[in-house]
Amino acid sequence: MVRESFQEQLSQLRNDMLQMGNLVENAIDMTAAALEYQDLEMAEKVVVEDDNIDQLQLAIENRCFSLLALQQPMARDLRFIGTALKINTDLERMGDYARNISKIMLKIGSEPLIKPMVDLPRMAKLTRQMVSENLTAFVQQDRALALKAAGHDHEINKLYKNTFTELAALITRDTNTSTVTQSVYLMFIARYLERIGDHATNLSEWIIYMITGERLELGDMSTIVINQPEA
Amino acid sequence: MMNKRLKEKAGFGALAVLTFLAVVPVLAIIGYLVWQGWPALTWEFLTQPPRKFLTEGGIYPAIIGTLALTVGTIMVAMPLGIGTAIYLVEYAGENVFTKLIRIAIINLAGVPSVVYGLFGMGMFVLTLGLGRSLAVGALTLGILTLPIIISTAEEALLAVPDSYRYASLALGATKWQTVRRVVLPVALPAILTGTILGIGRAAGETAPIMFTAAVVYTPRLPDSIYDQVMALPYHLYAISTEVPNVSQHMAFGAALVLLAIVGAMNLVAVVIRTRMRLKRLR
Amino acid sequence: MGDKNKMETRNLNLYYKGFQALINVSFPVKENTVTALIGPSGCGKSTFLRTLNRMNDVIEGTRIKGEVLLDDENIYDAEVDPVVLRKQVGMVFQRPNPFPMSIYDNIAYGPRIHGRKNKDELNEIVEKSLQAAALWDEVKDRLHKSALGLSGGQQQRLVIARVLAVDPQVILMDEPASALDPISTAKLEDLIHQLKSSYTIVIVTHNMQQAARVSDFTGFFLNGEMIEYSVTNTMFTAPRIKQTEDYITGRFG
C-alpha cells in the first residue's frame, strides 16, 4: 500500500463522518423522544448539542478542502471526499431541523396537546432509521442498503400529508387561538421532519455515487405535499 | 579527526609530486632542444637546401617534404577514417562483421610503425610499382593513422546524444540527412582534434617513410606526388647516424623545427575545438 | 471534438527480442482531441506511442504484429515509407532536444530536409511555427542565437515549433513536461490546449493531474495491455476497472 499518510487521513475523515452521523442520529432520536413523551429536558438537550454538530461540520469541511488541495484525490477517493462534503451539509441541515423541532416543543411546553402524538414520532423514527441505514451503507459500501434507506422517504411523505390534512381540518373546525397556534407549530414540526427525510434521501444518493459513481435521483416527487392542490 | 585530515594532505601531496615528476621530462626535453637547437635556427637554415653532404646549409626541402607528406596523409586518412567510423557507428549495427572490423582496427593500432613501412614498400612500391614517392609515403602514413582516426571518430560519433538522432528522424529526415546535418557537425570538433593529433604523430614517424618516400638528400622540391622527398624525421635520423661530422646544433635545430610543426598542428586542433564549441553555445 | 478516428491500432502486439511489450492493444485516437496515455513505468505506454510514428523501427530487435491505422491506412504496410509517415506524425520527446544550432536553423531544419530552400518561405514558416508554439515573442530578437541558450521550458516549446514547422497532422508527446518547472509546465499545457484545434495530440505522462488537465480521452496501460480507455472525466472520477482505480488513487503494489 502506498500513499500511507493519505490513506491515514482518509480513514480519519471516515471516522469524522461516522461521528457526525452518530451525532445527528442521536439528535433525531432525542427529538423523537421529546415528541413522543413531550419531554422538554430532552428537547433542551437537542438544542444545546446542536453546537457540536455545527463544529464538527466545520472541522470536516476543513479536512476535505485540505485533502483536495494537498492530495489531489482521484476516482474512488475523489468521490469519497466529494460525498463527505455533500452529506456533511445534509447532516448538518438535519441537525438544524432537529433543533428547530425541539425549540418548537419547548415553546409548546407542557400545555396539553390537541392531538395524540403518533404520526410525528413515527416520522422521526423513520428518518432516524434512514440515517442509521445510510451510515451502515456508507461504512460497508452497501449500495442495496442505501437504496432501501431512501425507500422510507415515501412513507414519511405519506405521514406528512396525513398529518397536514388532519391539522388543517382541525383548524377549520376549532378556531380557538391556542388550537390554531399549536396546529401551526405541529405543522411546522411535520414539515421539518419531512425535510429531514429529503436530506436523508440525499444521503442515499451521494452514498450510492460514492460506491459506484452512478448518479441517481431518488426523490419521490409525487408524494411530496407541496405538489398537493389542497396544501 | 586530525589523523584523517593529515592523511588527506599527505595523499594530495604525493599526487602533486607525481604530477611534477611526470611533467619534468617533458619540460627537460623541450628545454634541452631549445638550448641546443636555437643557435642553428637562422633564416638560411630554414630556407636553404643542405650542402656538403648535409653538414652545412639548411633543411628547407625536408620542411616542405614533411608538410607535403602531412597534407597527403590527411587526404588519405581523413575521408577513409571518418567514412569508416560513420559506417560503423551509424549504419552497421552490432554483428559479426563489424566485430571483425573492430578487432582488425585494434590490431592495426598495435602494429609497429616499421611494419607499416615494410608493408608500404612491399605493397605500393614493389607490387603496384608506384616507386618511392610522396604518394606512397602518404598512403603508408595514412594507413598508419587510420586506426587512431577511426577510433577517435567513432568515439566522437558515439558521444553525440541519440536524442539528436531521434529528433531528426522523427521530423522525417533520412538517416543520411540526420548524419550529415546533425550528427557530423556536432561530432566534427572532436573528430578533427583526434585526426590532427593522430596525423601530428604520423608526421614525426621515420620508419614508415624510410622505405616508401624519403631520401637522404635532394635539393629539389617535389613537383608531383610521384616525386621522392626529403622529410624532417628521416633527415634527423640520417644526420645523427649516417653522416659524420655534423654539428650537433644542426641536428637539434631540425628536431626543434619538427617539434614546432607538430606543436603547431596540435595548437590548430585546440583552436578548432574551442571555436566550434563556443559557436555552438552562442 | 471530432468523432473520427484519426489513428487507430487493432490488435497491436510488439515484441522486443524475446519480450512482448504490447499485448493486443486496440486503441482509438480521435481527431482534434488530446489523448493521454497513463500507467506505471514499463507498462508499454511509451512503446505504444512510438509505434504510432514507427520510431520503434529505429530500435533493433523490435517486431510488430497487428495494425496501426492513420486515416484508415495501415502505416506498417510495405509501401509506407517511415520517413514520409514521420512528417505526418511528429514527435516531442521527454527531454527538450533542440539541435545545437540557432533557433532559426532548428525550426527550419524540417522544412529544409523536405526540400524547401526559398528564404522568404522559410522565414514565414519559422515565424508561424514559433508563434503557434507561443514562443515567438520571447525569441524573435535572437533567432540566430543558439537554441541551447534557451530555458528548458522554452526549449520544449521550440521543439514543438520545430515539429509544427513540418506541418504534421498528429503530434506525439512523450512525457513532454517531465523535465520542466511548474510554470513552464503550465505554459506547455496551455499550448497543448491551443494546438488541439488544428492537430491531433497523443501525450504520455507520468503525471495523472496533467493527464486530467490536458486530455479529452485517457488510456490506462498496465503490463503491455490497454486496461481501460475512457473519456478523461470518467476515467478520473469513476473508472470502470479496478486496476485503473487502484492506479489512479495511488493504491498500487
What is shown here, in short?
The complex is a heterotrimer of chains A (231), B (282) and C (253). With 231 residues, chain A is mostly helical. Helix content of chain A is 82%, strand content 0%.
Describe the structure.
The complex is a heterotrimer of chains A (231), B (282) and C (253). Chain A has helices at 4-37, 40-71, 75-108, 119-140, 143-173, 177-212. Chain A is an all-alpha fold. In chain A, helix 1 runs antiparallel to helix 4 and helix 4 (119-140) runs parallel beside helix 6 (177-212). Chain A is elongated, with a radius of gyration of 19 Å. With 282 residues, chain B is mainly α. Chain B has one domain: MetI-like (MetI-like fold, Orthogonal Bundle), CATH 1.10.3720. Chain B is 77% helix and 1% strand. Chain B has eleven helices and two strands; from the N terminus they run H-H-E-E-H-H-H-H-H-H-H-H-H. Chain B has helices spanning 2-37, 43-47, 60-92, 96-110, 113-127, 134-159, 162-170, 175-203, 207-210, 232-241, 248-281; strands at residues 50-51, 56-57. In chain B, helix 3 crosses helix 6. The mean pLDDT of chain B is 86. Chain C is of the alpha/beta class. Chain C has a domain at 5-95 and 169-248: 3-Layer(aba) Sandwich (Rossmann fold), CATH 3.40.50.300. In chain C, the strands form two sheets. Chain C has a six-stranded mixed beta sheet, with helices on both faces. In chain C, helix 4 packs across helix 6. Chain C is globular. The two termini of chain C are 36 Å apart. The mean pLDDT of chain C is 93. Classes of the chains: A mainly alpha (231), B mainly alpha (282), C alpha/beta (253). Chains in contact: A-C, B-C. The B-C interface holds B 93-94, 161, 163-174, 177, 181-182, 185-186, 280-282 and C 53, 55, 58, 60, 83-87, 90-91, 93, 95, 97-101, 109-110, 113-114, 145-146, 148-149, 159, 162-163, 166.
